[in-house]
Amino acid sequence: MIECHQWLEEPGPADHVLELTYELRTRSRLRAQTQGGVEVGLFLPRGRVLAEGDRLQGDDGSVVVIHAESESLSRVFCDDALLLSRAAYHMGNRHVPLEIQPGQLRYLRDHVLDSMLRGFGLEVEEIFAPFNPEPGAYHSHGHSVATPAGPIHNAPFLRLSRHEHG
User: Fold this and answer.
1) Any long-range contacts for 30-33 (C-beta under 8 Å, 24+ apart)?
2) What does the pLDDT look like over 110-123, one tens digit per residue?
3) Which phi-psi region, left, alpha or beta, contains residue 53 (left: φ > 0; alpha: ψ -120 to 50)?
């Protein structure tokens, strides 16, 4: 069994392909098989989700690349940016992992969430595809979940216009 204890930050070739669902990519300890049938054990630091294209260093010198396995998803298409933003807000309020693409949202299939979004007037479609959700506002490779990445002066600044109610 190949053991992987660390990420490789630089792009490059890989010797093995490990295809995992999103749920399995959230684990730091895992035993799985590559597409070629080689057994791999992951012993990674906690707190980082494996993403499509991540490369891991094997203890035998080989490199394992991560691919997102196709799984059952729901997809919402919408040309109305406000309605799509509203849907994303409500999904985020429920801490739902969400993949955001131009004009669409994807999430792991859930009939309760499907019903909620249909209630907003959105059409929900069932698909089978790889799932690559947003990593989150405080995602970084060297910080805890509670600490934003980088110095505070690198944080995005958002100015909201004043809105009067009348």
Assistant:
1) 31/1
2) 999 999 999 999 99
3) left
